[in-house]
Amino acid sequence: MAILAPSILSCDYMNMQRDFTECKENGVKWLHVDIMDGQFVPNLSFGYSLVKSMRPVTDLVLDVHLMIDTPIKYAENFCKAGADYLTIHVEADTPENIRKTLELIRSLGVKPGIVVKPKTPAEAIEEYLPMVDMVLVMTVEPGFGGQSFMADMMPKVQWLREHTSPDFLIQVDGGVDAKTAPVCKAAGANVLVSGSAFFKAENKAAFVSALMA
Ligand code: DX5
Ligand code: ZN
Q1: Ligand nearest 85 Cα, by number?
Q2: Which atom of ligand 1 is nearest the CA belonging to 146?
Q3: Which residue from 32, 47, 117, 151 has the fewest beta carbons nearer than 10 Å?
């Protein structure tokens, strides 16, 4: 059974609380929160104040994906704001600072995760596997919702599945819909982020059960 994490980048910003409730009513357990700084990726999105505002109004797992440079500067704020998972990009800092950031996140009681962009090989995060609770394989270039799924990322997912325990969390993010989700699950992914496909789906309950199956 896979976990579905709708990306709130594609929700209705004037009706966020209604959308979170709709997620929960349809069996969703996680929400994916995309944080962009306009430097690491060519786009801006939310800051930690959104995570802080979400925390009292939803008991869903808050899965926060930091697409920001030098995450060590901001990790504490996101942890204190109420993230459950905090995922940082391996490309965003030096190996020494990546280690320190993962340690900091864990010391604050939050589950650390590590992400690879499409051009980064899975081997680049091998040394961090013992330090994290989840890995994320980007299946689009990070920065925007609504892009096409990159099926050529699946060997990376397979490599990570072979190098981790069967229930270790391997997440995919970008272009995941009812058609591409089975490809991700077959490769070994068990956490599926879906933004535009989820929020566009007419029948949310059917979408959730298809992806989580
Ligand atoms: C992209 C973000 C994704 C995005 C996915 O940089 O990390 O989480 O919201 O959106 P879709 O599912 O529309 O590709
Ligand atoms: Zn994301």
Answers
A1: 2
A2: 13
A3: 151
Q: Is 173 a catalytic residue?
A: yes
pLDDT in tens, 66-101: 999 999 999 999 999 999 999 999 999 999 999 999
Q: Which tens digit of pLDDT belongs to each residue from 150-169?
A: 999 999 999 999 999 999 99
- For residues 186 and 172, give the distance between their C-alpha atoms in angstroms, rounded to a whole number: 12
Tokens linked to 74? 């901001």
Give me the pLDDT at residue 95, please: 98
- Catalytic: 177? no
179 DSSP 8-state letter? T
- Taking the CA of residue 41 as reference, the ligand 1 atom at the shortest distance is 6
pLDDT of residue 174: 98
% of residues, the chain, pLDDT over 90: 100
Catalytic residue among 34, 63, 133, 177: 34
| Pairwise CA distance, residues 53 & 62, whole Å | 12
Provide the 3-class DSSP secondary structure of residue 87.
strand
Mutate to test the pocket of ligand 1, among 193, 194, 199, 200 (most ligand atoms within 8 A of CB): 193
Sheet architecture: strand order including 111-116: 3-6, 191-194, 169-173, 134-138, 111-116, 85-89, 61-67, 30-36
Closest residue by Cα to residue 170 from 115, 100, 108? 115
